[in-house]
Amino acid sequence: MNLSTLTTRNERMLTVEELRTAIEGGEIDTVTLAFTDMQGRLQGKLLHARFFLDSVLDHGTEGCNYLLAVDVDMNTVDGYDITSWEKGYGDMVFELDLATIRRLPHRPGSVMIQCDLALEDGTPVRVSPRSILRAQADRAAEHGWKALAGTELEFIVFDTSYEEAWASGYRSLTPANQYNVDYSILGSARVEPLLREIRNAMYGAGMNVESAKGECNLGQHEIAFKYDDVITTADNHSVYKTAAKDIAHQAGKSITFMAKPNEREGNSCHIHLSLRGLDDSLVFWDQSAHRRTPLYDHFIAGVLATMREFSLFYAPNINSYKRFVKGSFAPTAVAWGLDNRTCSVRLVGQGQSARLENRLPGGDVNPYLALSAMLAGGLYGIENELPLEPQTVGNAYTSGAPTVPSTMREARDALAASAIAAEAFGEDVVKHYLNYADVELAAFDAAITDWELRRGFERL
Questions:
Q1: Whole-number Cα distances in Å, 331 to 102, 339, 414
Q2: Alpha-carbon gap, residue 132 to 427, rounded angstroms
Q3: Of 309, 337, 364, 453, which one is least surrounded by beta carbons within 10 A?
């Protein structure tokens, strides 16, 4: 590999030589190597910069393969083929993606490099979220297409630190706004010091920041970023989500991306996606006829046909399903419509901006898995020339259309029964994420909730 010829994603990302110069000049002292785990979190190592240059740059580093086989509390659990006590919990290799070298302005002297995961023999770790998305992007490329996407990630800001929130059992937290601030300039201004810090830090980290706006829940906001190829978008999403929490912590505040942290509006993560030719030609839009192409319709049909079966990749947690409430702007109907926010798939834009918006995922989504599911579903629709059902006009909540799973258990069973998923992702990948669901369901089933105690401690 010729390190000097590698290109960066944009001029704000660092080349290898620029990083080397910054380290040797004392500007950079810490290099963070990170990958995104099953739960959508960044995991990895913080390396001393000199050690990185001398010992890691040319060949990567290693980490325990249990990082793709734990629950959210980092407990080792049974049922994963990739590793176990019997297999000894060996290492996997962090393969540096040197197109992703980014400064972390909120962490002076630091850069981050995102990684792919491989076995010791160099074989990609197929169950890694980034590997799963890369496989679907490669499938599209075999047809002559590239996938472009953007994620709209909502969060709620509290004027309560993470430590105080933990100590209080996450009760009586103080939201940064006390009323609905959807599109409110005044409401955004109240939180602007934090929003501004996040926006500017992410721009310095190589992201193309668009805007910030208030949302409906108390203290709820969204920062939007320009679309990019699917892997870049997923990489940026993961870095942004981690950095936003870090920046909030530095300000003595906390941010949550939970899908449904309270009884008010949940946090969504609407995902916009389109296909282009590898030469950037239009695929979804016929300019001469000024309408969607048949290929676009097949893609939409495929996303809808697989939506129930792939729901676990869109809604990966027990809490995700609490967000699916009729009349809440979170979808319950497997339906599509033109600029219709009551549908799970909303079509927007014309010409180069023609795209579909998947409104199913929440703020807790793993972007690699959700984008993989959208691509796999859409490609299934194209390859099988699925016809597109008539659009839903009016209120999709009362349309009688099929509905998305209402619980994680229902979504888990739908994925387990899906021949399409086994073909698109591989049986090993499906089995891995079914076990992820089983672990979460078993933990939840064993938990004693506040709801049970309030209703039953004295009165039952």
A1: 35, 14, 18
A2: 12
A3: 453
Question: What residue ranges in 215-344 does DSSP mark as E strands?
Answer: 220-225, 228-229, 254-256, 269-277, 285-286, 291-292, 336-338
pLDDT digits (tens, 9 = 90+) for 399-453: 999 999 999 999 999 999 999 999 999 999 999 999 999 999 999 999 999 999 9
379 neighbors 292 (Cβ within 8 angstroms): no
Contact criterion met (CB below 8 Å) for 264 and 145: no
Q: Pick the last residue of a domain from 121, 156, 184.
A: 121
Same domain as 269, residue 176: yes
Distance, CA of 390 to CA of 337 (rounded, Å): 9
Residue 126 lies in a domain: no
pLDDT band at 4 (very low <50, low <70, confident <90, very high): very low
d(CA 31, CA 425): 33
Nearest to 82 by CA among 120, 56, 135: 120
Q: In this structure, are residues 166 and 258 in contact, taking their beta carbons and an 8 Å threshold?
A: no
Domain match, 185 and 210 both: yes
Instruction: With H, G, I as helix, E, B as strand and everything else as coil, classify residue 388.
Output: coil
- Angle made by CA atoms 405, 400, 391, in degrees to the nearest 5: 100
> Which of 91, 121, 151 lies at the terminal end of a domain, its last residue?
121
Residues 241, 387: one domain? yes
Q: Is residue 8 part of a domain?
A: yes
* Chain position carrying tokens 């086994």: 422
Contacts of 448 (CB under 8 A, 6+ apart): none
Give the long-range contacts of residues 64-69, CB within 8 A, separation 24 or more: 64/89, 64/90, 64/91, 64/92, 65/89, 65/90, 65/91, 65/92, 65/125, 67/35, 67/37, 67/43, 67/92, 68/37, 68/38, 68/92, 68/117, 68/125, 68/127, 68/128, 68/432
Q: Which structural domain range is residue 18 located in?
A: 3-121
Cα dihedral angle (252, 256, 260, 265), rounded to 10 degrees? 70
pLDDT at 6: 59
Q: Could you tell me the pTM of the whole model?
A: 0.96
How does pLDDT run across 347-390, given as a tens digit for each residue? 999 999 999 999 999 999 999 999 999 999 999 999 999 999 99
Distance, in Å, from the CA atom of 200 to the CA atom of 208, rounded to the nearest integer, reads: 10
